[in-house]
């Protein structure tokens, strides 16, 4: 049996930095592998700050509902690395198995021959090797960080480039303005290849439009070429081909309408895929994506929560994510008012104040908890930030302790509890609850 943790730990030692944006090392290892990136199924490449994973989830659900075979590459994982690589299989896709993953890693490590290479680069090369070995109709490829110099940006022939909403995040690597970050994201656009953009700020859209013109890439813009709106509990999508009446996305939150719309606009603009109307309906209604306003209904942590309470999980960690989550919570509050309590853990690199200030009106209490990461923000600092934006706050040593504290409050009605602030925290919660992504 393969000890995957030991393999991943070793791969982390192949470069002194976790992040070192460049394509030179990627081209080197792909050349040694015989260029698997040239033998991939047709690719839809997805960049952006927020909503990448959800948009990929909608794309996958719709394309699979149309009976097509789909490979998927996403990051980061929540509990197991295998979540990053989903291979098309007869009867539906499945996460890569440990033995096959380890074999791909071993091949990449052997051919890399000890040269410096980042963890994301060598694991992306392994993913390309796996995708090239298995036939599929489509590969959905999510950017890791940025776009222009991301390890995924080595695919020369694409079906489409997709850019989800852009906001401030990872400023240390991408720049400290929306324009600079948008330029990095728009670096995935390719000459004469369809580009689709989700709703963007004026600053971001201007940069994307300029790059699309430079690449002569036909650009489809949310609000101009396609529109998606909630209507009477359903979703209406409109473009030049007409109107589609669809179920509301089964992922919670108003922002998921835009993510679904971006996926639909992309697929409707690729005639070769021939996605039937029924597949859009089925995909939107059955899509799954963990840790994005995910309701935890069963599990070990759920049993610690007050009886009758609601326990939600979201990995959002920047101010725009916070605004989207608050919108989802406001909708829940309209349908059934409850006291709202946040359990929060964050990394020190994130804008804790910008994130938490979104919740000041809705939340009655924050309980800050640690994350098992070297770069985690101390719980007391999170609590202090919460107090500064007007939310009463305290700390506990774990999510379980936080839930026990909430249970002891005896709130009536039972509260709505949201665990949020980090995908790392979300992964810890899913593992502790026994709710593993599949």
TrEMBL record:
Pfam family, any one: Mur_ligase_M
Residue ranges of domain Mur ligase central in the record: 46-190
The keyword RNA-binding is annotated on this UniProt entry: no
Reported cofactor(s): Mg(2+)
Keywords on record: ATP-binding, Folate biosynthesis, Ligase, Magnesium, Metal-binding, Nucleotide-binding
EC annotation from Swiss-Prot or TrEMBL: 6.3.2.12, 6.3.2.17
GO BP term (any one): tetrahydrofolate biosynthetic process
Protein's UniProt keywords contain Cytoplasm: no
Pathway: Cofactor biosynthesis; tetrahydrofolylpolyglutamate biosynthesis; Cofactor biosynthesis; tetrahydrofolate biosynthesis; 7,8-dihydrofolate from 2-amino-4-hydroxy-6-hydroxymethyl-7,8-dihydropteridine diphosphate and 4-aminobenzoate: step 2/2
Reaction(s) catalysed (UniProt annotation): 7,8-dihydropteroate + L-glutamate + ATP = 7,8-dihydrofolate + ADP + phosphate + H(+); (6S)-5,6,7,8-tetrahydrofolyl-(gamma-L-Glu)(n) + L-glutamate + ATP = (6S)-5,6,7,8-tetrahydrofolyl-(gamma-L-Glu)(n+1) + ADP + phosphate + H(+); 10-formyltetrahydrofolyl-(gamma-L-Glu)(n) + L-glutamate + ATP = 10-formyltetrahydrofolyl-(gamma-L-Glu)(n+1) + ADP + phosphate + H(+); (6R)-5,10-methylenetetrahydrofolyl-(gamma-L-Glu)(n) + L-glutamate + ATP = (6R)-5,10-methylenetetrahydrofolyl-(gamma-L-Glu)(n+1) + ADP + phosphate + H(+)
Molecular-function GO terms, alphabetical: ATP binding; dihydrofolate synthase activity; metal ion binding; tetrahydrofolylpolyglutamate synthase activity
Ranges of residues in domain Mur ligase C-terminal: 307-422
GO cellular component terms listed in the entry, alphabetical order: cytoplasm
Record-linked InterPro entries: Folylpolyglutamate_synth, Folylpolyglutamate_synth_CS, Mur-like_cat_sf, Mur_ligase_C, Mur_ligase_C_dom_sf, Mur_ligase_cen
Enzyme class: ligase
Family: Belongs to the folylpolyglutamate synthase family.
Function: Functions in two distinct reactions of the de novo folate biosynthetic pathway. Catalyzes the addition of a glutamate residue to dihydropteroate (7,8-dihydropteroate or H2Pte) to form dihydrofolate (7,8-dihydrofolate monoglutamate or H2Pte-Glu). Also catalyzes successive additions of L-glutamate to tetrahydrofolate or 10-formyltetrahydrofolate or 5,10-methylenetetrahydrofolate, leading to folylpolyglutamate derivatives.
Protein name per Swiss-Prot or TrEMBL: Dihydrofolate synthase/folylpolyglutamate synthase
Organism: Tardibacter chloracetimidivorans
């Amino acid at each position: 049996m393969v000890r995957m943790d030991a393999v991943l730990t070793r791969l982390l030692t192949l470069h002194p930095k976790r992040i070192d944006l460049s394509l030179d090392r990627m081209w080197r290892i792909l050349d040694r592998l015989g260029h698997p990136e040239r033998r991939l199924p047709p690719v839809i490449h997805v960049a952006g700050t927020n909503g990448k994973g959800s948009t990929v989830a909608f794309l996958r659900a719709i394309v699979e509902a149309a009976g097509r075979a789909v490979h998927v590459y996403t990051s980061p994982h929540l509990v197991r690395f295998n979540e990053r690589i989903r291979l098309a299989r007869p009867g539906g896709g499945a996460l890569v198995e440990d033995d096959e993953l380890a074999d791909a890693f071993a091949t990449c490590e052997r051919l890399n021959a000890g040269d410096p290479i980042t963890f994301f680069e060598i694991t992306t090369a392994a993913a390309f090797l796996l995708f090239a070995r298995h036939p599929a109709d489509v590969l959905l490829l999510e950017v890791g960080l940025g776009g222009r110099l991301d390890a995924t940006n080595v695919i020369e022939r694409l079906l489409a480039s997709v850019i989800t909403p852009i906001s401030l995040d990872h400023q240390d690597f991408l720049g400290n303005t929306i324009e600079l970050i948008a330029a990095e994201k728009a670096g995935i656009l390719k000459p004469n290849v369809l580009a689709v953009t989700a709703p963007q700020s004026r600053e971001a859209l201007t940069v994307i439009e300029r790059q699309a013109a430079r690449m002569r890439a036909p650009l489809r813009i949310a609000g101009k070429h396609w529109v998606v709106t909630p209507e009477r509990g359903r979703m209406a999508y409109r473009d030049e081909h007409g109107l589609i009446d669809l179920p509301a996305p089964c992922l919670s939150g108003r922002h998921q309408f835009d993510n679904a719309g971006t996926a639909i606009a992309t697929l409707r603009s690729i005639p070769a895929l021939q996605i039937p109307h029924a597949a859009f309906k089925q995909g939107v209604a059955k899509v799954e994506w963990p840790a994005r306003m995910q309701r935890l209904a069963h599990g070990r942590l759920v049993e610690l929560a007050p009886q009758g309470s609601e326990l939600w999980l979201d990995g959002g960690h920047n101010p725009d994510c916070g605004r989207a989550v608050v919108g989802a919570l406001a909708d829940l509050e309209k349908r059934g008012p409850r006291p709202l309590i946040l359990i929060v853990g964050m990394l020190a690199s994130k804008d804790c104040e910008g994130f938490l200030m979104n919740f000041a009106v809705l939340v009655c209490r924050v309980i800050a908890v640690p994350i098992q990461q070297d770069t985690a923000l101390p719980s007391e600092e999170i609590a202090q930030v919460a107090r500064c934006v007007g939310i009463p706050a305290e700390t506990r040593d774990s999510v379980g302790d936080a839930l026990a504290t909430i249970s002891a409050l005896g709130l009536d009605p039972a509260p709505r509890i949201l665990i949020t602030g980090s995908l790392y925290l979300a992964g810890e919660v899913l593992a502790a609850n026994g709710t593993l992504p599949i």
